[in-house]
TrEMBL record:
It comes from Qipengyuania marisflavi. Keywords: Hydrolase, Metalloprotease, Protease, Signal, Zinc. InterPro entries: Metalloenz_LuxS/M16 (IPR011249), Pept_M16_N (IPR011765), Peptidase_M16 (IPR050626), Peptidase_M16_C (IPR007863). Residues 235-416, 714-890 form the Peptidase M16 C-terminal domain. GO terms for molecular function: metal ion binding; metallopeptidase activity. Residues 1-27 form the signal peptide. This is Insulinase family protein. It comes from the Bacteria. The keyword Cell cycle does not apply. The keyword Transmembrane helix does not apply. Residues 77-211 form the Peptidase M16 N-terminal domain. Belongs to the peptidase M16 family.
Amino acid sequence: MAILPCASRRLALFLPLALLAPQLSSAQEALPAPRALQTGDETPWIYEGSDVPQDKEWTFGKMANGLRYAVRKNGVPPDQVSIRVRIDAGSLHEEDSERGYAHLLEHLLFRESKYLGPAEAIPTWQRLGATFGSDTNAETSPTHTVFKLDLPNVDAAKLDESFKLLSGMVRAPVLSDRNVAAEVPIVLAEMRERGGAQQRAAKAMREALFAGQRLAVRDPIGTEATLNAARGAPVKAFYDRWYRPENTVIVAVGDIEPEQLAAEVEKYFGDWEGKGPLTPAPDFGDPVAPAGANPANPIGETAVIVEPDLPRNFNYAVLRPWRPVQDTIVYNEGLLRDSLAVALINRRLEARARGGGSYLYAQVQQDDVSRSADATFVSFAPLTNDWQKALSDVRSVIADAVSIPPTQDEIDREIAEFEVAFASSVEQRRVMAGAKLADDIVNAVDIREAVAAPETVLMVFNSMKGKITGQQLLEHTQALFSGAVIRSAYSTPATGEADAATLRTALTTTVDADGSARLAANAISFADLPAIGTPGEVVQAAPIGVLDIERVDFANGVKVLLWSNDAEPGRVALKVRFGAGNRAFEAKDAAYMTLGEMALVGSGLGELGQEELDRISTGRRMGFDFGIGDGAFTLSAQTRQQDLGDQLYLFAAKLGMPRWDPNPVIRAKAAARLAYESYATSPVGVLGRDLEFLLRDSDPRFTTPTPDMIAAATPERFREVWEPLLKQGPVEVLVFGQFDREETIEALRKTFGALPAREAIAPAALNRTTGFPDAGETVVEFHRGDANQAAAVIAWPSGAGLADLRESRQLEILTQVFNNRLMDALREHAGASYAPVVRSEWPSDVNSGGRISALAQLTPEDVPVFFREADKIAGDLAASPPTTDELQRVTEPLLQYINRASTGNTFWLYQLEGATTEPKRIALLRSLLADYTRTTPAAMQTLAQKYFGGTPGWRLAIIPAGQSLATSLPQPAVGGR
């Protein structure tokens, strides 16, 4: 796919670095032809036993040593190759003494291996342009371990080197006592950071729902006891047992011929041999009802989990044994009917919640869980302590679904939703990202199924959609709620509110079927909706001088940026900017800022409430995302040409004829209240609640609303606050994607061009600024979570606005250098934090509020270590320039990120939003790539001196309640001279 409509435009914009993709060299072409490709009449390994039509864009291979691979040419994004190495071993393959070993091995393969010395993996991949954590990553699940590499700007040498390094990691890691001892603290830090009340509740829920199976007690993170006892020899024994070619699948997708990718796989993995005989996977176990259970209602284990700071949550699961399937068309037709049945129930449950039900949300989901159970899960959040009422209401909706077939109108509505999703996948097939395609193969292997092209999915759906009956869906619904055992878990903040016996009684009590949530047929058409106003007139239309982007101005003051292109077939990115953003609010209305983000869209427009909005968009590709930025409010959506006009109508009507339904506000109040109760459970929760408020110099507008503030909020006041804000400030519309220009301008005339003249933003709002706190004593806050959890933040003020936007881009380079050093100091050397992060925030819509902040989760004892290391790094950067290698490790990934991101419309939309009022944004585009990727050590030192050299960092520590900071905690110091 071309990055832009023509190559010359791309070069005109990014000429300073002449970003031309390197050509494959003869060294790559000289690789021996792959010998294990499954071609001709041979059935590829992933399609064995399946009649699903093969996706011919994939090429499969199976080598003599048992290793299987899948390769595919794909140019999205250009010049990238995505590689996945999947090992068929996860936490379910561990013995009791090995708990956590699968995940520990994931770490150890990055620590040291045949071609990479200790701690060399991260910097090596960075030098190759791969960003750690996104382009280079891994995951461990109960059933597999997957190593992931998205390699940008690939050429023959880089591809070969990457396969070599990966082969060394997978085939020959150094599993010494020294490396195990170095990595275990990092894994324990990860365990600690993921711990707390929510993790305890999830663990207890998993133990209850999967009682008697390995899955109940095989969390991939492991246990402190087994990890602390880990040594090189037993870890290597686990590695030797499972890391072998027969258990390995390699997927490679990218902008290179598949035969060349296959040749690389065979070159570096063809002679791999496992040690000893192949070990069969252990029996994961089946869900089994307890002896004497009633076959008609086989209630098994129930658990009540008391966590004082967590909101109420109820889960029950209908469990059936998981078995491998023949992935046939008939099987997939059954899956589609299951999905339709689930969608019908979920729509009814949501309708009950919107209408003021006894629960905040409720959802049904079918899932094949870790090859351990075929399960139907029901989850909901009671609004009060009357969980029995909420459970009864949810079960009543389900009882109706398992006793009476759905109506044809309901079926047609869900079919229309599925059809647009499948059709969109076909439209966008050629812009499917290689990384997503690679992950699809990995997931298919994990669940032991084949992979289907989007055209195949749509074909299967189209062939059956006219034959779907209410009786069929009733039978599938009944099957989904039948199983070997039913287990439940209820999490509550109150001791004594429930026990296992009352849960069992509540689940066995007969409920009456409630059909009131069935959605009656009520056709709604955009053609029947009132006009926004008199269609407006275009007063100016001209190119902006970048790409083929055009600016169109309407007589009412609305300004539009249009870019019609075919870079992403079937997609149109739409964004509307208006008003003053968070500047518009007064301190007394902080609660309404939060509630607006949650409820403004749901409150409807014109004659359309949330249910009507859902109905009118059925079978359409439409969205309605609302956001509050520093300097503007935004409405955004991903749509398509055939829905663009109606999408524009919805957005314009929200501004021109808003509706003020109180129910979404009432529901948002309930959600905000329940969420607030959980903030104190962990350092991360406290950060989410207070950090933005503190970093904005305790500006009351950014207070997370307390329960008292939420209780005092009313739908009437919600309208009083928001109604004038929807009328204020200039409107900018950005439409980027595949659309017809003339049709779109006509749609704009009838929608945004027809809006009444906008009111001016109040001067008080325009003059509001955001401060930064003084760097005095360390601010200390407390959480009610685990005693070994803490968090720390250090921050410095930076800048804001367009005037120094180029400097902000350079500051991103400095911030990433800081990030690498902090990661090295706290993770690799001290083992104090799993993922410390440094980030730069530079608002461009307003002229205040910028900052550089470093954050880490730690033990309370390591909080002083964090401040000491952050101070040292800031001081060192101001005192001495970073090395050229440090800069390369940052600028190369940034270069590749921009190259890849710029192939999509949303990248350009983000860069240009606000340009109709700030034309300087257009000129600043021309230096974007150079600003982010070209610098010098001296320039970075100068920048560090400006932001760190004369300004002490503001500090925040969040520690457990009842503890105090170590007396050695340093106080703010000026970082360098």
